[in-house]
């Protein structure tokens, strides 16, 4: 059986091919799954997709009509999948429920420090042999307050880093994490966390109830000199409202590894094209904003775990087994 793998980055391809060796044949494609590319999957019982795939009703209909019976998503998030339609069509859907939380937490901290210490601006200057310090002043993080929105495994990992820097910790989540509390974290209402924190980092999943969790009102309650980091899902922030606040000169820095309209942009080379997304085009012009292309998870350790779990999900499907990774079980 040949398994078709969509949205494969060049660095991922050897890991995927090696992981499937001895199990099934695998064909890696660099194109992302959407309505235009879904017909490629005709005749393939199993397809694997990336986080930016379009797995809405239309795409799932095409896959099912072409003989696909199992979708193995290589991510923890699954907000891009119409699970109701998948169940109706008899498609098994699995995800990667866990991989290294340190990869995302460490990258979130990297974004925070990069905007705080003006690293990108400094590197650009020195490349031009401009060694002035004007405009590069940052702040000590020691003794300041980190607000962690979402204190699961990734949020906990971020909290441990912040604790190591000597920061006070505030948390907000539907359930308190005892490990975070042992670090000295105080759980407070979201509005209080936003108002008191020097650094705010987002680590919650994107669901209907969390979409635009950071809206105009939330942004307005934050300190003018706060740092905001999002390495979770772009839809957690109302980007239009964020641009408005940035235009008003607010915030020390904003680090975004995700963007709510990133599908069709991130992971692709658009350098020779005009960007029609005015919001993103405006966002990247602010000197205190750093945007990266959804790469927080992209370490050898995390990607290796993602690939290994994807292979396990495929083998479980073929053997009729069910695990905690299954979102829609096999009929």
From TrEMBL:
TM region positions: none
Q: State the superkingdom.
A: Bacteria
InterPro entries according to UniProt? D-isomer_2_OHA_DH_cat_dom, D-isomer_DH_CS, D-isomer_DH_CS1, D-isomer_DH_NAD-bd, D-LDH-like, NAD(P)-bd_dom_sf
Looking at the record, the residues that make up the D-isomer specific 2-hydroxyacid dehydrogenase NAD-binding domain are 110-296
All copies of the D-isomer specific 2-hydroxyacid dehydrogenase catalytic domain together span 3-327
Keyword tRNA-binding on this protein? no
Q: Which UniProt keywords apply?
A: NAD, Oxidoreductase
Family named by the database record: Belongs to the D-isomer specific 2-hydroxyacid dehydrogenase family.
The molecule here is called 2-hydroxyacid dehydrogenase
